[in-house]
Each structure stands twice: as C-alpha cells, then as structure tokens.
Amino acid sequence: MIAAIGLDVDPTFPVFVAAALAHETPVTVLNLRAAVEGEWRVPLPPSEPAQFSFGGIEIELRPEDTYFCRLIDMSSQQQDPELARRWFALTRALGAWLNQAPQIVANRPHVGAHNSAKPFHEAILGRLGFKVPASITSSDPEELLAFAREGPTISKAVSGVRADTEIATPDLLGSFDPSSGPLHLQRRVLGTDIRAHVVGDRVLAQAIASGDGVDYRRDGRFDELEVVELPEQLTQQLAAASRELELPFAGWDLRLDPSGEYWCLEVNPMPGYGPYDSRCDGAISALLLDYLGGES
Amino acid sequence: MTASGVSRGSTPATDATTVLVVASDRDRVAARLARELRARGRDALLIDGAEAARMFTIRVDGASASVTPSCPMFMRRSAWWRDAEPASDDERFLTMECYSTVWAAAALTDAPVVNRPGVRGWPGRLTAATIEHVAGDGTHGVVEVHASGPERATISNGNGSARVPWGKNVQRGTGAVERLPAGVPLRARAVDPNEAYEIVTVVGTRAFTATNDALSASLDLCARSIELAQRAELLFATVAWAVHGGEAEPVRIDANAKDKDLRFAWPEIADALCEELLR
Fold it and tell me: Which of A167, A198, B157, B204 fits a 20 to 30 Å CA distance from A275?
C-alpha cells in the first residue's frame, strides 16, 4: 500500500492524490491539517503502525507501506502557540518515522536539505560531476562588484526560501548595503531551461526556451514546456546522482547553452511537480505511482 | 568587550589565526571555550550567526570551493537564539540567508570546525530511537513513542520489567506519562525509576565521563560513546547513558552540550576542544 502524507492546501500534494485515485491505486492519505487537530501515536523505531485519529477517521501508517511525503511544518504560521506546538510535535514525530521507515520514502525528510545552503549545494553538484555556474556568496561590496563585472550575473536566495531570481548588474550592486547581506550571485547562463524529474531510475525531462527572461516559472510560461529526450549519458548521470543523494524523487533544473553544454542549476528534494505533470498528461505521477507501487 | 571577556563587534577583523566561536554571548559553553582559547594565546571572536554570515566570502566554481576567512570555527546552535520572533518577513528572510551562509561556510571551509554541519544541516539532539537507528541496532522493538498526549503514549514496559512510561512534553514538562497534562504532545520511553545516568563527553577520539563510577569503565562507555558520536558524524557531543541491571543504553546525544553536563571534566574537555580547533 502507498501512503501519502501532506497538506491539502499545498498545490502539489493533491496532484499526487488525484492521480492515485484516477489510476485506481489504493492510497492512504494523511492530511496534516486534519491530523494536527486530532490524536496520534507514532512508535519508534517503526516496527508497528503509527496511528492517527481525527474527525471520526482512524488511519494507520504501516512499516510495510511505501510513502509519498511532503512534510511541511506549519507551526510558524500559527497564531495560537498551543497549535504551533502541536504542529511541531506532529511533524517531528512523522519526520523521525519517515527517516526510519524500512520501505521506499519519496523523499525522506531533510534529505537534500543542502539545497537550502546554495553554495554548499552547488559544490556538491560540482563534485557529482555536473557543470555548475560559478558563484560567490558574500556581504563584501567590492567582492560582489568584481564578480558582477566579470560577466552576466544573477542573484538568488542563499537559502531555500522562495524568492525571485534577478539579474544583478554592477550598477545595481553599487548601492548594496552589507547589512542586507549576504548575497548569492551566480554566473548567468543563457539557453534552454530543462526540468528533469527523476523517479527511481526513470527520467522525464521537459524543456522550454529561456528567452530573455530570468525565470520562465515567474513569467507564467509553463504551457510552452515540451517533453524532450536527454542524452543517455546525462540521463544516467541524473539517475546516479539522485541515488547518491538518496532522492528517489528529484526535480533537476538544468540549462542547455547555445554551445550544447548542459549546466546544472540545482536539484529540488521536494519538487513542486504539478505544473510539469499537467503538461505531460500526468506522466510524472504515473512514474511515482509505479515506483511506489513496486512496478518499476 | 562582552561580559565573557571576549571581543565582539559588528565588523570584526579576522585572520586565519582567529578562532570563530559562532554562538550567543549568553552561551556559557561558548564563552568558557573562548576564554580558554585566549588563555592559550589565540584570538577568539564570539559572534552570533548573523555577524558570522556577513564575514564570509564563499566562492564555488565547479567542484572547488573556497571560504574566506579560513578560520577554525566552534559552532553552537545558540548562534540563532533570539529574544523575539522576526518583526517582518524581510527580517525572517535575512535570518534564513545568514543561517544558510554560515551552514555553507562551515561545511566547505578547509579549517577545523567543531561541529561541522553536514548535508542535512546543523547537528542537534538525538533521542533514544534515533540513536538506535544511527547505530544500526534496530532490533529491540519500540523504544520511544511520540503522541498527541499521555492518553495515546502507551509503551511496553519491556516484558513486565519495572519500567514505567516517562515523558517529556512540548511544554517542557517531564515526568511519569500518567502525570503529564492530557492533550499536550509528548515523547515517551519506558524508564526504570531506579536507573542511574552517566554522561560521556566526546571530543574527537577522546571521551570523558562525568562520574568516577567504576561501572562506566567496565561497561566501556567511553569507547561506545566515541563510536556513537562518529556514527552520528559529531566531533563534539555528550552521550547520556541510562544504566540499570548491569547494562547501559544510550538515551540522548547532544551536539550542543550544556555547561552543566561538561563541568565535571571541563579542563580535559577544554584541552581537547582547543587541540581540535588549533590543529
């Protein structure tokens, strides 16, 4: 049995649940927003089921299940401190459970967390053999300016917090105040954006011409995505790297430059894959269901 | 200068010989260690997370990374203690940016780091079940239960032994599960009320017990603690052992050891920490 753990208000979680229903795949759904209002018992190590009770419903997560999880702690969003503590306790318990669950978990909490420390993340990708654009992270205006003067540059968040990627020019950096740092600058690579979702050993890639924009997602251009075949060597590299990073499910952001070189921008450990799934007739969800159901 | 006698400033000047103690100035372990370093003739700069983040320049190009300044670092979670929640989303964002920068700098620097954050982030605290998982010793059945309240925290007492469910709830209440307030989430394990505790501090390949109990030596707690810390990828940690019936089981590993747990062997621990940082 597949169990799905997540939030009903998260745009991605319902995509997976709806796909399971459409495929008539039995799935146990644990909606965290409901569970946090109820009762739970999570034994560790997970040698017996974890039990949840809310709204007259009883749910068991079993050690023999496989898991699709998007574990999101909403404690910081709560006005009520008691409810905030319940969120913290519930997600901590489930995090420990999922980290120790014996079967496949896509993905275990905190695996791939280095995506939230971009310089570290980029170094890891480089060590895995990917070509990664050079970057600098600093609060030193002179260092930042010197980097920006060497070539086209973008700025993006150091952390995993969702923030807009922007073009960074020497002119813009001239007014940088170190107290608002650090800044993460990266060399800008032009070309074609590729999102490759890896599920187990299977890779499904979609491409979109980047154009002059910095981020096609922000520009609302998802409808231009097309499924593409990647070179076999790159496909194998993505699958091997996902394995190495302990990510059964990964969303790789790549860019193909005009000279035919593939650059790796990042790998998302909890991909918001809904917009991509809907542009390939649910193929990503289907891969996930096959994988978690033991059919690939 | 702070009350700890350690220099501190918003734009500190450093070179590679300065040891960065990345911590709150209310962190007594950090302050004591900074004094020990200074007593050994080294500059020790006690700075919080945001100050540390703004010191570093990290360059990544392909597989190579460089961090300047390349200073030894003593890392404490207290670096992120704050008196109030961030006042705005911008402030929260900046805090996250600083946190991530220090994480990356400490992970990538060639200089010695105690404790170096890894791919999953900053080291924290491991409880009994997680220790068992890290040790690869998951054959003993349920050792810990996380529950929405005492009413759901049922846990076996170990085949009729004298153990009773003992819990710690999210309001920091500790005690027999049946006496903890209903409806307050907690973590519980079965505890022998007569068990004793030993705390072993690990620094690299050295370990120091808090007591002189001969049982700690006969149970080989120092070597076992070193092995556990290594499995948890911690250079510096305290390992708390519950000792009962002539056996010992690890019940907590803390990568941010508290002053009260270190004081019994502080001179030896300080020597070992300074040695690790000044390699």
Answer: A167
Q: What are the structure tokens assigned to A88, written together? A: 């913290």
Q: Sheet containing A249-256: which strands, arranged edge to edge?
A: A226-228, A202-209, A192-199, A249-256, A262-268
For chain A, say whether B149 makes contact (Cβ under 8 Å). Answer: yes
Extents of the domains making up chain B: 19-114, 127-191, 195-255
CATH number at residue A161: 3.30.1490
State how far the Cα of A257 lies from the Cα of B60, in Å rounded to an integer: 20
The residues in A 125-184 lying below 8 A from B, measured between CB atoms, are 126-127, 131-132, 134-140, 143, 157-161, 163, 178-182
How close does chain B come to A102, measured CA to CA in Å? 11
In contact, A257 and A152? CB cutoff 8 Å: no
Residue A206 belongs to a domain: yes
Give pLDDT tens digits along chain B (279 positions).
333 333 333 445 567 789 999 999 999 999 999 999 999 999 999 999 999 999 999 999 988 999 999 999 999 999 998 877 777 888 889 999 999 999 999 999 999 999 999 998 888 899 988 898 888 866 567 789 999 999 999 887 665 566 788 999 999 999 999 999 999 999 999 888 888 999 999 999 999 999 999 999 999 999 999 999 999 999 999 999 999 888 999 999 999 999 999 999 999 999 999 999 998
Do B15 and B69 touch, CB atoms closer than 8 A? yes
Residue numbers of the domain that contains A46: 2-106
Cβ of A126 within 8 Å of Cβ of B64? The answer is yes
This prediction's pTM: 0.92
How buried is B101 (Cβ within 10 angstroms: 0-12 exposed, 13-18 middle, 19+ buried)? buried
B58 beta partners: A137, B67
Burial of A289 (0-12, 13-18, 19+ CB in 10 A): buried
Number of domains chain A is built from: 3
Q: Using CB atoms, which residue from A85, A114, A157 is nearest to B170? A: A85
Q: Which of A129, A114, A1 is nearest to A65 (CA)?
A: A1
Q: Which residues pair with B47 in a beta bridge?
A: B22
What ipTM does this complex have?
0.93
Q: Which of A74, A117, A180 is nearest to B90 (CA)?
A: A180
Chain A residues with CB-CB distance to B154 below 8 A: 41
Q: Is residue A144 one of the residues assigned to a domain?
A: yes
Residue A195, beta-bridge partner list: A206, A253
Q: Which residues of B touch A163 (CB under 8 A)?
A: 93
Nearest CA in chain B to A265: B62
CB A11 within 8 A of CB A274: yes
Q: Within a domain: residue A148?
A: yes
**A133 close to A188: Cβ distance less than 8 angstroms:** yes
Left if phi > 0, otherwise alpha if psi is -120 to 50, otherwise beta: which for A71?
beta
